[in-house]
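User: Hello, can you help with two protein structures?

Assistant: Certainly.
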Amino acid sequence: MMRTIKVIGKGKIAVKPDMIRLYVNKEELCHEYEDTLRKSTEDTELLKDLFEKLGFQRKDLKTVYFNVDTEYESYQDRDKSWKRRFEGYKYIHHMKIEFASDNKKLGQVLYALAHSSSKPEFSIEYTVADVEKCKNELLHKAIEDSIQKAQVLTTAANVKLGEIQAIDYSWGEIDFVTKPMNEMRLMECTECEMSAPAAYDIDIEADDIDVTDTVTVVWTIA
């Protein structure tokens, strides 16, 4: 019977974020369904106009989620029973736009959004442009770690490490994201001093993104 050893290798890297991912959320309630759709289109076009003036392409603003649903309000009738009253149709539109990490650009974008007539909600996070490169580096380090552990174990057990029989990896999604600004800090940003017309003075140095991943390797031993 073939003898084997199974070792879990752990890879860990710290990645410097080089991209800003900005989420923009809009929602509106209208009494008529057609008005809701029209309003969502108008608001989206206003946002695209805003970003276009800042040097982006209109197609850079991507839809993450869009939905239109009925809205009802609960109320207590004269007989003390609770009933529902139709309020209208509400649209929810979540969008995102990404650009290279740049505090000056970020200051311009936040200023424009804060002073937009559509008054959208927005939040930011930092990520990396080349996610696949980071994933490959992480896997490489995980394999290296498993080899090192296997060599230590077999040496200590006075057995010989043979060939690899299997490599098991989950292929799960890894989120290369850091959020240095929470919702409250972002709201406070609208009160920052301006360093130039139509821009906020932003001074953010996002921390490295620490990520880990594991891989299971099976060797024969003799």
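That covers the first. Now for the second protein you mentioned:
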Amino acid sequence: MNDVLVTKTSRTPAKRVNIVRIQMVKEASLLYPARRVRMARDVVELFREFLQETDREVFFLLCLSTKNEPTAIHTVSIGSLDSSLVHPREVFKAAILANSASVIVAHNHPSGDPTPSREDICVTRNLQKAGELLGITVLDHIIVGSEGAYYSLKERGDM
């Protein structure tokens, strides 16, 4: 079959458009005994196994149901020693597929100091704005440091 179709009004070949299906694929799962996220410390405990001894910044998304029950964890970005590239499009793609009512984002600081940078606060504000447009609330942005140290932008009033 010839894939080139020339229209009557133009000599330009027609454009082939793919028909697609979007699907979320489960890679693994874990048991979460607390069932609901109530505070930042719960999220830190949940992400501990993902962030321990990581030598670069990793940015995660925690998708939540209307009852604040975790439904999915997604690695949004794996960056370098002191930064990771985060765009609302990449964060909310997984949140939409997981039918999230709200989300919590988290990342680590390999330096061990969980104090947010200006970029961390700017990313949080951009995510909040995008979430408002989509109807998905960003509940918190948590930065995990070393030895259990963390910084919750929500708890500290930075969002």
